[in-house]
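Technical annex B. To support the medicinal chemistry partners, we prepared a structural model of the target in complex with nicotinamide-adenine-dinucleotide, based solely on the information shown next.
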Amino acid sequence: MQRFEGYRALVTGAGSGIGAAVARRLAAEGAAVLVTDVDADRAEEVAAGISADGGTAAGFGCDVSEPESVASAVGAVVERFGGLDTLVNNAYAGNPETVLLEDSREDEWLGAFDVTLHGAYRCCRAAMPHLAAAGGRGAIVNIGSVNGEQDFGGHAYSAAKAALAGLTRTLAVDSAERGVRVNLVAPGTVDTPSWKGRPQALVRAAGHYPLGRVGRPEDIAAAVAFLASADAGWITGVTLPVDGGVLIGNLAMRRDLGPDRD
Ligand SMILES: NC(=O)c1ccc[n+]([C@@H]2O[C@H](COP(=O)([O-])OP(=O)(O)OC[C@H]3O[C@@H](n4cnc5c(N)ncnc54)[C@H](O)[C@@H]3O)[C@@H](O)[C@H]2O)c1
């Protein structure tokens, strides 16, 4: 059964990594997907790949830091595909690395919030009337991070992701009676172009995950598809960690306290 037959979806930051995997997964399950990214060429490339695989997709340049650009993207999905059922807020900006707070730059702090948090707000605001008109199947899935739940470094990035979880909850209650569910997926470390040039960091990270590896974009896409689908019809406002178990324990301490260490 195709869970998204007849659905219309918009994914932000979908020219790469997790966003591209989400777009491919929704399309593979029957959705018509507007693949958007600030890099329009990459969005077009991902959309072309989906079409070549027999799916329905179109690429569209959208910078979530620009309200007009967001309005155009929402207008485009409605015009091309006849409505909007699923919004996935995936675009982010900012360096997840930690610098001393006194060495941080205000423009970088504001820039991280402008894309990661305010971008999602702009997309939700523009999409909501269409999602509310989707006959009870409207859904938003925000992409957060384990950084929004626990300290893994990165002040602005972590604060913006925590705030996104807060927006997820308030919006979930607000839009429930309009038939729109709002949830958040919090990925752990995922092997995407974000980590380009740091293969050893990914290898080291894997050792901290109870499930023994870092994530793949497809791991996150599967969870996003679940929360967007009717299978999650009675789930709203939650943060779903998709993190190989990293949030539920402290593997380093457990190893350190093992009997072989005495
Ligand atoms: N990779 C990880 O380890 C990891 C872990 C936790 C959470 N996440 C989250 O997953 C999401 C995707 O991350 P990824 O690793 O796939 O990143 P990525 O760098 O592979 O892709 C991010 C995409 O966002 C686009 N983008 C940047 N600014 C934009 C803007 N203003 N408007 C629209 N698009 C913009 C980029 O062009 C890029 O295509 C992000 O929200 C990130 O915070 C990633």
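Notes passed to the chemistry partners:
Residues 12-13, 15-19, 37-39, 42, 62-65, 90-93, 115, 119, 143, 145, 187, 189-190, 192-194 surround nicotinamide-adenine-dinucleotide (CB under 6 Å).
The chain is about 45% helix and 15% strand.
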